[in-house]
Specification:
The chain folds into 3 domains: 159 residues, PAS domain (Beta-Lactamase, 2-Layer Sandwich), CATH 3.30.450; 92 residues, Signal transduction histidine kinase, dimerisation/phosphotransfer (DHp) domain (Helix Hairpins); 148 residues, Histidine kinase-like ATPase, C-terminal domain (Heat Shock Protein 90, 2-Layer Sandwich), CATH 3.30.565.10. The protein contains 9 helices and 14 strands. It is rod-shaped. It starts with a helix and ends in a 7-residue tail after the last strand. It is found in: Membrane. This is histidine kinase. It comes from Desulfofarcimen acetoxidans (strain ATCC 49208 / DSM 771 / KCTC 5769 / VKM B-1644 / 5575) (Desulfotomaculum acetoxidans).
């Protein structure tokens, strides 16, 4: 049963609901019209026979002594009222018929015990009785003589005169309602098909998008700004978000593949060197001390290189996982002093200079001290690598607009302007500006650290003259430990 219900189209359900509501409305309206009209016609008959009963009472002739009332009654001629469907009869207190109008002939109104009981109470009343299959409306008027109930005058009129038009009215109401429901249902079906045609177009377009996997396609709707227009707009917005999400997912997938390929390549090179040197040592033994020392130095160097690479990959994996680093109030002066101490060991043949690094002790930033140090060291390490021996690298600090501006300026090879936007991508290298020892991960890690601290990195570079990387860190308002 549930399956059949689910297979009914919206168009058919709308038509059925519309037809059902219309049928119920017409049925209620027809019943109200019929009941109101019948009540009105019966009320007119009641008024008519009540008036005639009063005239009849005034015209009744009673013959006989007072002690024997209703011994003989002469009723007026019924034709006086020009109504052949009106009948009269008089019943005494014992329920015996004493007189009746000529148009009744030998017949009499049906008389029940309840009729005499109500009449004996002295109140006039109406009732509907049946003589055979003919309905009669009777007005019962008690006859009181000398304060004593002596009988009841019954004035009746046939209801056939109103039943016939009422029967025709019922036929017209039911037939007309049926025809109206059929016509309205047909018209409702056509209107529903017209109203729902845009939904069919939307469905076809959505199916075409699904089959073609074309998320760039959109639903076209030229109708008024109604619910269907809002539906089309909502679906188009959803497709826009899906397309954006799909592109991001595809980009992430491609980046992941490139990341794995580059990481595998970076790890393969030192592993190959290490394995080659180990095999050389195994074959040579202690025969060539100088070659043995050189091979061990290569193994040590490549091991350190692998350690750096694995550490960088771990940092990027944490970044991709959305890991939040612990934060605390960090003294800018202590941070820079620590960075200078560690950077002196990386400088090598490059001259390291520092300007205004010993800032006031009242200047603090909020973040992770180790990661902030790593951020600055990455920039310094890059500057050392891409600066020729004898060149210089300057670490400069300035405070402005509630920011600490930490700049690393080198006199190295520089970066072409068209490559500036790509240098923060993972494993991205420029032959003219990157040395052979770099993994292409440092600046990606630096950007992630900066983003975690609500900071930004700005780059200015001139090819052949050097580069300037500036980190802008927000200062913390609470300057006290």
């Amino acid at each position: 049963m549930k399956r059949i219900k689910n297979n009914i189209s919206i168009r058919l359900r709308l038509t059925l609901w519309y037809s059902s509501v219309l049928s119920l409305t017409l049925l209620l309206f027809g019943m109200l019209v019929y009941v109101f009209l019948r009540q009105m016609l019966v009320s007119e008959i009641d008024t008519s026979i009540a008036g005639r009963a009063k005239k009849v009472v005034q015209s009744i002739t009673i013959i006989g002594p007072f002690d024997f009332p209703l011994q003989q009654i002469i009723l007026p001629d019924i034709d006086v009222f020009a109504s052949p469907n009106t009948y009269l009869q008089v019943i005494d207190a014992h329920g015996v018929l004493k007189a009746s109008s000529h148009n009744l002939g030998r017949q009499a109104f049906p008389l029940g015990a309840s009729t005499m009981k109500k009449a004996s109470q002295g109140n006039a009343f109406y009732e509907t009785v049946y003589s055979g299959e003919q309905p009669l409306r009777i007005y019962n008027l008690p006859l009181i003589l000398g304060g004593k109930f002596i009988g009841v005058l019954q004035v009746g009129q046939s209801l056939v005169a109103i039943e016939t038009p009422l029967s025709r009215l019922r036929f017209i109401l039911f037939t007309g309602s049926g025809v109206t429901v059929v016509l309205a249902g047909t018209l409702g079906w056509l209107l529903a098909r017209t109203a729902l045609r845009p939904i069919d177009e939307i469905t076809k377009t959505a199916s075409a998008i699904q089959e073609a996997h074309d998320l760039n396609r959109r639903i076209k709707y030229d109708g008024p700004g109604d619910e269907l227009a809002r539906l089309a707009e909502t679906i188009n917005a959803m497709l826009e978000r899906l397309n954006f999400a799909y592109q991001k997912l595809d980009q992430s997938y491609r980046s992941q593949k490139r990341f794995l390929a580059d990481a595998s390549h970076e790890l393969r090179t030192p592993l190959t060197i290490i394995r080659g040197n180990i095999e050389l040592l195994q074959q040579m033994g202690d025969a060539e001390p100088e070659i043995r020392t050189e091979a061990l130095a290569d193994i040590s160097e490549e091991s350190r290189r692998m350690s750096w690479l694995v550490e960088d990959l771990l940092s990027l994996a944490r970044a991709d996982a959305g890991q939040k680093m612990s934060e605390e109030l960090v003294s800018l002066r202590e941070l820079l002093a620590d960075v200078i101490h560690r950077a002196e060991k990386l400088a090598g043949p490059v001259n390291l200079e520092a300007t205004n690094i010993f800032v006031s002790e009242d200047n603090y930033v909020y973040g992770n001290k180790e990661y902030l140090a790593k951020l600055i060291l990455i920039l310094l390490d890059n500057a050392f690598k891409y600066t020729e021996p004898g060149g210089s690298v300057l670490l400069k600090t300035e405070l402005a607009d509630k920011e600490a501006c930490i700049a690393v300026i080198d006199t190295g090879t520089g970066i072409a302007e068209e490559n500036l936007e790509q240098i923060f991508e993972r494993f991205y290298r420029i032959d003219q500006s990157r040395g052979s020892r770099g993994t292409g991960l440092g600046l990606s890690i630096a950007r992630w650290i900066a983003e975690q601290h609500d900071a930004r990195i700005e780059v200015k570079s001139t090819l052949g003259q050097g580069s300037e990387f500036t980190v802008r860190l927000p200062l913390h308002e609470n300057i006290k430990n």
